[in-house]
Amino acid sequence: MSTIDEIKNRVDIVDLVSETVQLRRSGKNYTGFCPFHSNTRTPAFVVFPETGTWRCFGQCNEGGDIFGFVMKKEGWDFSEALRNLADRAGVELKPLTPKEQEAVEEHDHLRNLLEDAVAFYRHNLFNTPAGKPVLEYLHQERKLNDETIEIFGLGYAPDSWDAGFKHFTSKGYDQEDLIASGLLTERENVERSDRAAVYDRFRHRIMFPIRDERSRMAGFGARIINPQDVPKFLNSPQTVLFDKGHILYGLDRAKKEIRTQDQVVIVEGYLDVIALHQEGFPNAVSPMGTALTEYQLRLLKRFSRRIVLALDADAAGDKATLRGLQVARQALDRESDPVFDARGLLGSEARLKADIRVTTLPDGLDPDEVVSQDAAQWEQIVAEASPIVVHVMETLAKEQDLDDPKVKSQIANQVLPLISDVPDSVEREAYRQRLARLLKVDERAFTETAAPKSRRRRANLRPGPASAGVEGSLSGDLPIHATPELLEAHCLSVLLRRPDLVYRVDRALQENGLNRISIDDFQSSDHQALLQLVDDSLKQDHSEPQLFVQNSLSLPLMELADQLLMKTEKLDPNEDKVLEDLVRTLLVLRQRRLFQEIEHIRFLMEESQLVEDNSVADYQETMVHYIAARSRLDKALGFYTSHLIH
Known about the structure:
By secondary structure, the protein is α+β, with helices and mostly antiparallel strands. The chain contains 27 helices and 20 strands. The protein has a five-stranded antiparallel sheet. A five-stranded mixed sheet has the order 13-12-14-17-18. A four-stranded antiparallel sheet has the order 6-9-10-11, with helices on one face.
């Protein structure tokens, strides 16, 4: 991909133009008043998302792509537009080094190998005795016709440890190519030069070629034929071409229809996607059974902001959990219950300004089974998809005794926190009213439920011993006497969104004779892990440190990071104020921890004096250091607090 193509790929033309022009959707395009000429009464300015272009059909009669738009708007030449859009997209402008050029050529070589593998597996499906029963299974059990099988390039991996190895080496590919592409697996503790050190990764399986959104080969998915084999699903391993978190199965074929319908439907499996496309629903894609990542959601956002999750009854029903990230199986290589996370989805919905809805399939049926039995039923299921909060409240209420006061309370306690996470006030009020009608209670009861928390919040405003007498709030509604956990979370919510502020925080601390920010400033191990990722993102010299952090998150940390980022969606545009708030919060954290240490040393000194322990001198020396450190902290905190007051 060229640098210009990469910039176009990352910068959404609708988002870019919307910063200047108020756009309205008109079919699959957007219209508005041209920003380049006045005295117009007709919205003759059109943005075409599918081609990434714009045109004015009025007075100026001009058009172009994102580069042409900013050049005309800002009066820049192409080089200035290129630099600014590259900076916006996080793309580094530099010529390819010999090493990078070599990498591009290597990628092309591996893609050619994978294309040859598609042909190899297809031949084994259509033209070998072993492939005949597999083809019959696809025809009879899965109801797929030959045209669909050809379109999606399905194939069969022979039941052999080295059939693929022999075939590809006979065509001139070497062992290293086959390992790098994920077609071969290496045995452990065996010399690589030994032919027995490797074997075909895919054996006696239905093969699904996996392509990126530009239709380039990236890897394979494979499903068992023999029910006794494990695992049921097997993907290509992580390679230079294949990253499960960055690819959506079927998007290359679905993207045009997604734009046309302005809606994408996300299902779990390869065969679900294929069956839906065959039956006339070509806007379906799949995250291949892995966790639906925010990268994938942002990829979909380029084509539509209307996203429907089609979940099986177990994933969205009684087995649902309201934690984790999005919706997924943990991995295809091992089977586990799907996870539905309402809070994670709400966070993504708010950040992406999307409309994410959830629908539940009939018990025991997958999408391919539903659509093959009754296409109209599938259409109705998608049309009736509910907003996330509504889906959760209706699922929790299903088959419950809603006349039982305890049941009412349990449902309300689970749904109300989700409603609080909804950023739009009108939506929040509508959801509260809907929940009140569902539970047959007065809406005011929800306010009464929250009252004790409000009283506790007010109690937190009372000065404590570690506050050094400082009153006020650190940021918005965060009181300066909030718990250490809340203070830590506040620091991280800013740093996750702006990792680059670490440099300025360190400089501010050092100017006050204090140590740089470190994981020792945080007590929570999760918070320590997140700060370490922030630090790693800066050490990697990554063009987009925030993106580096998001892509490096482990599954358990994803929900926490999402929740923290939601707190800073409306970050103060004044960077100096953000920095002061961040340093002040960090100083309060250090002050509180130091106060606890001083109290601990004081207790040890008293104990030592009672038993005439010789350690008292050591404790006194430590106390001197602590008091000096407290003096520096108090001075620094006084400076930043005075900024807050004035």
